[in-house]
Protein 1
Amino acid sequence: MAKKQDKPVGGTVTVTQTGSPIRREKSQRATLIGLGLNKMHRTRELQDSPEVRGMIRKVRHMVSVAE
């Protein structure tokens, strides 16, 4: 059975980088770049999709999210 999502999917989500990628795994750095974030305090507005949510979940300790 598929897991129910807490938030509705389809709108946009605002992601801001709050942590440094220094001394992090290479895949976490690549995920930040994939989200369009590579410097501190940069903000991007992204489509709210399962793929983007997964990327945010991977680097949740380095970003803040606003719906």
Protein 2
Amino acid sequence: MSTTTFTHPVSEVATAAGVAPSAVRFYEQHGIITAIRTAGDQRRFDESAACRIRVAKVAQRVGLTVREIAEIFAGLPTDPRPEDWGRVAESLIAEAESRTAALKSYLTDMRGGGRLCEIDV
């Protein structure tokens, strides 16, 4: 069994995830990633932090809120395995398909020529 080590500073996680350091702190604040603090009060993250952020960015593009993403990630172990990420992918795919179907329905309703304020949302 692997032991999770928290050795990566904010700057490394930001670079690996393709985000600004402020985004790393944002995702930590909202429970997407977890850090420990050093004796000098600096954040240190584990290996999965950058991956979690990249997945969260995809989920946000699908339309999920940070709170919804945190709920999906809540079931992930500290050191996720491929099958753990597979379950996250299944959740994101199901949510994306549901939201796509709803959007298509709204488009159909808008094209129907009726009053926009009467579309059920």
Protein 3
Amino acid sequence: MIVRIMGEGQVEIGSSDIDVLNALDTELEAAIETNDEDVFRSKLHALLEKVRQVGRALPDDSLEPSELILPPADASIEEVREMLGDTGLIPG
């Protein structure tokens, strides 16, 4: 799966990493629901860091279509809330 982190670039993640990312996504959603800014910030950073860690960075000139777009690390709760789908940021 090709994932774009807004403002950073694209990474390719394997299907075996989706469950771990979904768990972090669930924690992020819970922080958004409770409007807890500190927990939200922590969970957003943890999710993005895990994507960077398990993903393989694609070259900057790569034009692969992104299957998933994640917010930048400095996104607000409201910005991320608007990006949430029925299954959070990470489908599956």
